[in-house]
Amino acid sequence: MRIAGFVLALLAFIPLVSDGAEASKSFSGRVIYCDNAALEVKKGPKEMLFVINESTRVVSNKTDRTASDLDLCQQVTVKYAGGKKGRVALEVDILRESDCRP
Predict the structure, then answer these.
(1) What secondary structure letter does DSSP report for 20?
(2) For residue 58, what is the domain's CATH number?
């Protein structure tokens, strides 16, 4: 009986997530690599690699774009889910177009 009371008290303090959605994080920087399946962004000494899939949304100035619009040297903000072993880009916002292509 004591154990059941303890378990019930413990469950009362565990936060519940109603929609099951993961919290997304963001990272801003310059694109140093991109193709149809991956995007690598660098800011200072930190580099992050993101997986791009069919559900990744690409925008610029609140206008929808496609993953093929991503280019080297663009300034972007990436909203992503996951951790060090695998980051999936949920949304890529192009802040400034490339300045390293003619």
Answers:
(1) -
(2) 2.40.50.320
5 found inside a domain: no
What are phi and psi for residue 4, nearest 5 degrees? -60, -40
Q: How many CB atoms lie within 10 A of CB 68?
A: 10
Other Cβ atoms within 10 Å of 56 Cβ, number: 20
Amino acid at 62: K
Host domain of residue 59: 20-96
DSSP 91: E
**In terms of pTM, does the model score above 0.70?**
yes
pLDDT tens per residue across span 15-43: 433 334 557 899 999 999 999 899 999 99
CA nearest neighbour of 32 among 6, 3, 70, 81: 70
